[in-house]
Amino acid sequence: MQERYALAPEEYRLSQLRYDLSKLRAKGLVERLGSSRRYGLTAAGLRWGTLLVKLRFRLLGQLASLATAPHPSPHPAPSAAEAAYRNVDHALDGPLAALALHAA
After folding, report:
1. Which contacts (CB < 8 Å, 24+ apart) does range 82-86 have?
2. Half-sphere exposure of 26 (CA within 13 A, CB side)
3. Ramachandran region of residue 61, left (φ > 0), alpha (ψ -120 to 50) or beta?
4. What is this structure's pTM?
5. At 50, which helix (H) or strand (E)?
């Protein structure tokens, strides 16, 4: 079933892109940047994206080590995305423990 949604770039038509963007905009997850054709994440989109990525990493296991491996940061203070990612990680500890789900 996963192969059903795996599209090569040449198979992803412009009409599908328009449809996907309209759905994401309707849900408030992305917004158009000015009058350009570019889109960016909204605050809600960043929160939901962070949560979904974090859940996937926590439940799938080894992928998490790639994302959370310590690496030297050129910035002394974490970005808003990194801070949100860390907050979601800590917030998931309780619910995952209550469900008896352990990191793979």
Report:
1. 84/46, 84/47, 84/50, 85/50, 85/53, 85/54
2. 6
3. left
4. 0.52
5. helix 43-60
Q: What is the pLDDT of residues 42-101, one digit of tens each?
A: 999 988 888 888 887 777 765 555 555 565 555 556 677 777 777 877 887 777 777 776
Residues 6+ apart with CB under 8 A from 32: 25, 38, 39
- Let me know how long the chain is: 104
Token code pair at residue 79: 């970005």
Separation CA 44–CA 46 (nearest Å): 5
Using a 10 angstrom Cβ sphere, with 0-12 exposed, 13-18 middle and 19 or more buried, the burial of residue 88 is middle
